[in-house]
Amino acid sequence: MWNPGKAKSIEGWTALVTGAGSKGLGREIAYELATQCKVARLLLWDINAQGLEDTVADLRQRGVKIPIESRVVNLADRAQIYAGAQAIAGAVDLVRF
Ligand SMILES: NC(=O)c1ccc[n+]([C@@H]2O[C@H](COP(=O)([O-])OP(=O)(O)OC[C@H]3O[C@@H](n4cnc5c(N)ncnc54)[C@H](O)[C@@H]3O)[C@@H](O)[C@H]2O)c1
């Protein structure tokens, strides 16, 4: 099992989570990054706009206060990935797929 306590500290980083509109892994990874790893900012990508909204609302409801930016990106579409990457160029320290 992944133990963030033993991993290199990523506190203060900006983290990009893809598939973050999921009620499953994406959402929980975002939550763990914010609460356990103490990243400074979350960037959330998913193809599902409603899923992203729900994830942001859930994270807020669970007390996550750091800046969160969500974006609809279809990871099967190269142009959308490039557009999303351009919008955050230089800002991301960690990408978790
Ligand atoms: N849940 C588990 O226990 C588990 C275990 C091992 C591996 N996995 C794998 O990890 C991945 C995520 O699991 P999950 O439970 O969160 O799945 P999920 O289906 O709940 O979430 C997948 C997310 O990816 C998004 N998505 C789908 N196609 C996309 C696209 N083209 N562009 C952008 N976003 C897209 C969906 O909208 C959804 O929000 C899956 O591939 C799953 O097979 C899951």
Kindly summarize this structure in a few lines.
By secondary structure, this protein is of the alpha/beta class. It has helices at residues 25-35, 49-61, 78-87; strands at 14-18, 41-46, 68-72, 94-96.
Number of domains: 1
Largest sheet: 4 strands, parallel
Total count of helical runs of at least 4 residues: 3
Give the SSE string: EHEHEHE
- Rg: 13 Å
> What is the number of beta strands?
4
Describe this structure in words.
The mean pLDDT is 90. The protein has helices at residues 25-35, 49-61, 78-87, and strands at 14-18, 41-46, 68-72, 94-96. The radius of gyration is 13 Å and the shape is globular. Strand 2, helix 2 and strand 3 (68-72) form a beta-alpha-beta unit. It has a 4-stranded parallel sheet with strand order 3-2-1-4, covered by helices on one side. The chain contains 3 helices and 4 strands; from the N terminus they run E-H-E-H-E-H-E. It is an alpha/beta fold. It has a single domain (9-96), classed as Rossmann fold. The site of nicotinamide-adenine-dinucleotide has 15 residues, from helix 1.
Task: Detail the topology: elements first, then pairings.
Blueprint: E1 14-18, H1 25-35, E2 41-46, H2 49-61, E3 68-72, H3 78-87, E4 94-96
Parallel strand pairs: 1-2, 1-4, 2-3
The structure holds nicotinamide-adenine-dinucleotide.
Nicotinamide-adenine-dinucleotide (NAD) binds at residues 19, 21-26, 46-48, 51, 73-76.
